[in-house]
């Protein structure tokens, strides 16, 4: 059994959906059936976030919702004739969504309501893709993943209940895969009481890994609009290098530092069951792409990773006392409490600095909670640069003409925080 994951770009219009059909058709016929995980089409998730935001603020969301309808109906018209039952299915989904949107209230339950709305992107995409596959005689069946991937109710960042999920996959998904390909949604899960959760933005890769782990799949392939796993974002760096083979460990670390190519949670379930992960281009399906697996390799090309919208916060004791362990534990407790992840930290005699993702609202509350103890300064709009497996030329290249606010290096990793990003 194999798992394929198609992201938003790979189903962004009718031509893209056809291409997915071609990829599935061209799989060796002796192959077992494939579990296909699909994300929302194109930029639908962003569109749904906008619709939800308006509904939450009790504003008129009709126009934003109509844009999404038009976008999906255009794809339907390009793929199917007017009589096809898929129109009714899509209409039903939009109707359910609209009915829900009218019940959205400006309450404390922002995240909970967000999940109920934003999940429609994947529901729509999976219905359309499944119908299209059947239409071109690729045998497939649609699966609602929400009763299968059981999660807690930490909305927008739900945690998987592995035991229940494993059982559900065993009982309800494996049998389906004996007969046909299965098309299901990325990014979604469900609670015990039937509500929808999401696994975090860009979480469909993670979904593919969850299914692969529970199915003991032979491999996972993530189909992308780039050739494979690259050493930098090609939108920012003109001369990227493709890693042909790379270890789980190396990939996890890159994802941790902010490489956006794979969702950071994806690797663990694969690594623990030693399932190889292929990253391939849906534009060049024949090309080998990257294989990420349990392997050792020599030093690889330096990876350039950027995290934008960073904030550097520094703390000093009010009376110029030294920063000690007790101060640090106060700071760490507050960081954890306000859910700030430390991307980089450093301490000196009288000050301690952390670099975190910027969130205006939480930062304000965080600072308020500590301002009796410390003098706190912060800078926003910063970029955290990481070079993994650096060499001197790579450092020279990246630091050129940049004002560096903080810098750190270990044996394998060089990082700095700067006011200047890359345009
Ligand atoms: N559609 C979701 C998002 O855009 C999940 C995903 O694409 O992986 O965040
Ligand atoms: Mg997406």
CATH level 3 topology of the largest domain: Carbamate kinase
Oligomer state equals single chain
Radius of gyration: 23 Å
Distance between the termini: 43 Å
Elements, N to C (H/E): EHEHHHHHEHEEEHEEHHEEEHEEHEHEE
The CATH architecture of the largest domain can be named as 3-Layer(aba) Sandwich
* Unreliable stretches covering 5 or more consecutive residues: none
Indicate the CATH class of the largest domain.
Alpha Beta
Quick summary of this structure?
By secondary structure, the chain is α/β, with parallel strands linked by helices.
Explain how this protein is built.
There is one protein chain. Helices cover 38% and strands 22% of the residues. The chain has 423 residues and is α/β, with parallel strands linked by helices. The mean pLDDT is 95. β9 (277-281) and β10 (290-293) form a beta hairpin. It has helices spanning 14-25, 44-56, 62-79, 86-101, 110-118, 120-135, 162-177, 204-215, 248-257, 267-272, 325-337, 360-370, 392-399, and strands at 2-6, 34-38, 140-142, 181-185, 188-190, 196-198, 219-224, 245-247, 277-281, 290-293, 303-317, 344-347, 351-357, 374-388, 404-409, 413-418. The strands form three sheets. It has an eight-stranded mixed beta sheet with strand order 3-4-2-1-7-9-10-8, sandwiched between helices. A six-stranded antiparallel beta sheet has the order 12-13-11-14-16-15, with helices on one face. It folds into two domains: 2-224, Acetylglutamate kinase-like (Carbamate kinase); 303-418, VC0802-like (2-Layer Sandwich). The chain contains 13 helices and 16 strands. It is globular. α2 (44-56) crosses α5 (110-118) and α3 packs antiparallel against α4 (86-101). The protein binds aspartic acid and magnesium ion (MG). Aspartic acid is lined by residues 7-8, 39-40, 45, 121, 186-187, 201-204. Its EC number is 2.7.2.4. GO terms for molecular function: aspartate kinase activity; ATP binding. Keywords: Amino-acid biosynthesis, ATP-binding, Kinase, Nucleotide-binding, Transferase. Residues 2-281 form the Aspartate/glutamate/uridylate kinase domain. Belongs to the aspartokinase family.
């Amino acid at each position: 059994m194999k798992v394929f994951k198609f992201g938003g770009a790979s189903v962004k219009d009718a031509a893209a959906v056809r291409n997915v059909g071609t990829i599935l058709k061209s799989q060796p016929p002796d192959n077992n059936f494939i579990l296909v995980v699909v994300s929302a089409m194109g930029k639908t998730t962003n569109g749904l976030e906008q619709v939800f935001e308006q509904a939450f603020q009790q504003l008129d969301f009709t126009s934003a919702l109509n844009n999404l309808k038009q976008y999906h109906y255009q794809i339907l018209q390009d793929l199917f004739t007017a009589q096809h039952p898929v129109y009714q299915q899509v209409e039903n989904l939009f109707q359910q969504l609209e009915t829900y949107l009218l019940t959205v209230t400006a309450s404390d339950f922002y995240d909970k309501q967000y999940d109920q709305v934003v999940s429609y992107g994947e529901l729509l995409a999976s219905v359309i893709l499944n119908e299209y596959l059947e239409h071109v005689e690729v045998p497939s069946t649609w699966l609602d993943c929400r009763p299968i991937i059981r999660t807690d109710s930490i909305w927008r960042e739900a945690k998987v209940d592995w035991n229940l999920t494993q059982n559900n996959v065993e009982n309800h998904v494996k049998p389906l895969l004996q007969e046909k390909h299965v098309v299901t949604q990325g990014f979604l899960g469900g609670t015990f009481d039937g509500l929808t959760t999401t696994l975090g933005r860009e979480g469909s890769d993670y979904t593919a890994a969850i299914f692969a782990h529970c199915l003991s799949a032979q491999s996972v392939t993530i189909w992308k609009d780039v050739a494979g796993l690259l050493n930098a974002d090609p939108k920012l760096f003109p001369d990227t290098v493709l890693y042909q083979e790379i270890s789980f460990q190396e990939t996890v670390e890159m994802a941790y530092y902010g490489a956006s190519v794979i969702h950071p949670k994806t690797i663990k379930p694969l690594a623990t069951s030693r399932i190889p992960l292929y990253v391939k281009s849906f534009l060049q399906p024949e090309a080998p792409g990257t294989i990420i697996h349990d392997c050792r390799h020599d030093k690889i090309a330096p990876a350039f990773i950027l995290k934008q919208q960073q904030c550097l916060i520094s703390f000093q004791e009010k009376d110029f006392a030294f920063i000690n362990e007790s101060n640090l534990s106060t700071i760490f407790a507050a960081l954890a409490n306000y859910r700030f992840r430390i991307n980089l930290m450093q301490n000196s005699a009288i000050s301690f600095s952390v670099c975190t993702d910027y969130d205006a609202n939480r930062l304000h509350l965080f600072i308020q909670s500590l301002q009796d103890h410390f003098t706190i300064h912060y800078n926003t709009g910063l970029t955290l640069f990481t070079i993994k497996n650096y060499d001197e030329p790579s450092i020279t290249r990246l630091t050129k003409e940049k004002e560096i606010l903080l810098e750190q290096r270990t044996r394998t990793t060089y990082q700095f925080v700067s006011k200047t990003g890359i345009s």
